[in-house]
Amino acid sequence: MGRSLHNARLPGVGDDSAASPVSPKDRFLTVYGRKPVLEALADTGLEVDKVILADTVRGPGAAEIQRAAKAAGVPVQRASAHRVKVLAGNGKQDQGVLADVVAPRMRSLATALSGKRPPARVLLLDGITTPANVGMILRTATAAGLDGVIVPRRGVAALDPMVVKASAGVAFRAPVLRCGSAREAAEMLTEAGYSLYALGASASAESLTVFDVELPQRTAFVLGGETAGVGAEVGELVTEWLSIPMPGDVESLNVSAAAAVLSFELVRRAR
């Protein structure tokens, strides 16, 4: 069974204009390295758009990838080693091969906000640079049924094999929303009528907690980076700061743990 889709411009997903262009970066997750690419090709639950092999990759390794791609009905393109490194975004670990995997629920934030049913509850990642944290947040948010996780292209760990591994493969089907930066996302959300609630060090003892705050219909929750927390550019647009009560002698939670507490508090409320 063939698993090939278009390569360049695709119609908008969930918006009113079928002709609106969508960047491939808002449609695919790129995996690189021989083992991750072979695993993607072997997974019948994934839709691989194409494989790109560096023209320097020859011998049994290249032959194995080409056989796997042929069996999956996926086209293989040749490119220079430099081009593969640029596309992979990782010059040390790409091993001269990458694959674009279709992420069916990934789309641009602009498309999501302009659709007939905009997401009601979303997470916004701001400055989270550890791939393991991004992957675990994607897994948790997907398990909790959240409407979207905004992963900016700048300032947040790239959606690469390390993120996919940390998510246990859930990243491929997570409701990822893409935009340029966290500030851009915060501005778009504010203009679309969302209230922004941030979890972080700026929350005081008098702050509302994630368990008692009354939430409006459209809500975005900002999760800040591992070291600096929510950045000033996003912080100035925050509606309110929230805390997670911790009776024990611990100063703070890891950001992925905080995301889990928040996500499943939303599940509890929905039930």
Which features does this protein show?
alpha/beta; eight-stranded parallel sheet; four-stranded mixed sheet; 9 helices; 20% strand
Explain this structure.
The chain has an 8-stranded parallel sheet, sandwiched between helices. The chain has a 4-stranded mixed sheet with strand order 1-4-2-3, with helices on both faces. The termini are far apart. The model is unreliable at 1-20 (pLDDT under 50). By secondary structure, it is α/β, with parallel strands linked by helices. It has helices at 34-42, 59-72, 81-88, 109-114, 131-143, 161-166, 182-191, 232-235, 255-270, and strands at residues 28-32, 48-54, 76-79, 97-102, 107-108, 121-126, 148-150, 176-178, 195-199, 208-209, 219-224, 240-243. Helix 5 (131-143) links the parallel strand 6 and strand 7. It is elongated, with a radius of gyration of 20 Å. The protein has 9 helices and 12 strands.
Structural class: alpha/beta
Mean pLDDT value: 88
What's the N-to-C terminus distance?
Answer: 40 Å
Give the amount of beta strand, in percent: 15-25%
Structure summary, number of beta strands = 12
Radius of gyration: 20 Å
Spatial order of the strands forming the largest sheet: 5-8-7-6-11-9-12-10
Oligomer: single chain
Helix content: 25-40%
Shape, principal axes of CA atoms: elongated
